[in-house]
Amino acid sequence: MAPLVLALIAVPLLLSSCSERSVTGPSTANAATASRTTDDGAVFSVEPTMIDIPTYDGTGQAVHPDVVLFDNAWHGSKYWLTMTPYAASNQAVENPSILTSNDGVHVSIPTGLTNPVIPAPRNAKDYNSDPELLYEPQTRRLVLFDRFVDKRKNTLYVLTSRDGITWARARTSVAVRGHRAVSPTIAPRLDAPAKMWTVDAGKAGCGAKTTRVEVRTASDQQGRFVETSWSKPEPVELSIPGYSIWHIKARWVPEKSEYWMLISAFPNGGDGCKTDDLFFARSSDGTHWTAYETPIVRHQDREWTAAAVYRSTFLYDAANDRLDLWLSARGSEGAWRMGYARARYASLLTALENKREVAPTPSTIFTTKVRITGEEP
């Protein structure tokens, strides 16, 4: 599929609305997106389509999208986004960056900001990864979580900003030995403790034969997640037959009174986290999950996702019963790209519950032509 070129766009990552009301999703008024929109009853009204991303290194290769959506423009923009460049799987450039948009699709660097907002570590063997972007309404701050990795441990650093331009480091929230805090994702709720999920991949990280998801609960009862302490991690009931969970994105969906999660997972018994598909799960309490074994996006269905569908994020538009998805993926030649898709939630859930393919199998099955070695982002 030809790339969908959007002016200075950058893909959002974690989606977090600043309220628990229904939100408005990205506009489809532009001709490029509208041309891929269908009303034929399929799950996807906009198929997963590659988009161009402005990265500070100029390559356009990036992963880990996340986004915060405001009901009204916050310091000039409704959407605030984060992602990490990752050209040629180079961890030296894997540093969280910030972008903005007023429709969720056309993205630019906010005036006055120079990316990355978190610089590369001094030690070349250390790296940043797995950013998570949220808004804390009680203190009116954007909050950026970053998983810092060194040879001994994973540390979740926290930065905050009152305008999206100037960022200050807050208290470190979690530090664990090994790769036991992969892909942190936080779901705040108004007037209820926030929850944080991480993936425990032990010492092996990307090469782990099995992984497990753990949950922590914030001590703050009003939903604050910066100046708070977190409980000890507890394992959750979440698994996908035949797969190991690698990267996750969770959100509380008040209209459904459920937590939802996107899951990037790789087959058991293979080459570690080299070939991932994207799955969906639901939970009423954040501990006991219903995970659907049918992928919602398969890596082999298109060239730009041929190696792996990676950490992705979503936004639920309750008024239209619609999921807006921002994807990251590695293609057949090893390049990391981002993409956008839109799904009808009712149709998606029906397909998953009946174990039907979410999208028809294409006539061409795409495979990777290069072997990537080393730790994945």
Which helices and strands occur, and which strands form pairs?
Elements: E1 13-17, H1 31-34, E2 44-51, E3 62-74, E4 77-85, E5 97-101, E6 107-108, E7 127-136, E8 141-149, E9 153-161, E10 168-169, E11 174-177, E12 182-189, E13 192-200, E14 212-217, E15 234-235, E16 243-253, E17 258-267, E18 277-283, E19 289-291, E20 308-309, E21 313-317, E22 322-330, E23 336-344, H2 345-353
Parallel strand pairs: 1-3
Antiparallel strand pairs: 2-23, 3-4, 4-5, 5-6, 7-8, 8-9, 9-10, 9-11, 12-13, 13-14, 14-15, 16-17, 17-18, 18-19, 20-22, 21-22, 22-23
Task: Tell me what the structure shows.
The chain is mainly β and 377 residues long. The protein has a single domain, classed as Glycosyl hydrolase domain, family 43 (Tachylectin-2, Chain A, 5 Propeller). It is 3% helix and 42% strand. It contains two helices and 23 strands. The protein has helices spanning 31-34, 345-353, and strands spanning 13-17, 44-51, 62-74, 77-85, 97-101, 107-108, 127-136, 141-149, 153-161, 168-169, 174-177, 182-189, 192-200, 212-217, 234-235, 243-253, 258-267, 277-283, 289-291, 308-309, 313-317, 322-330, 336-344. It has a five-stranded mixed sheet with strand order 1-3-4-5-6, with no helix packed on it. Strands 2, 20, 21, 22 and 23 form a five-stranded antiparallel sheet that branches. Strands 7, 8, 9, 10 and 11 form a five-stranded antiparallel sheet that branches. The longest helix is centred in the last third of the chain and has 9 residues, at 345-353. The model is unreliable at 1-17 and 19-39 (pLDDT under 50).
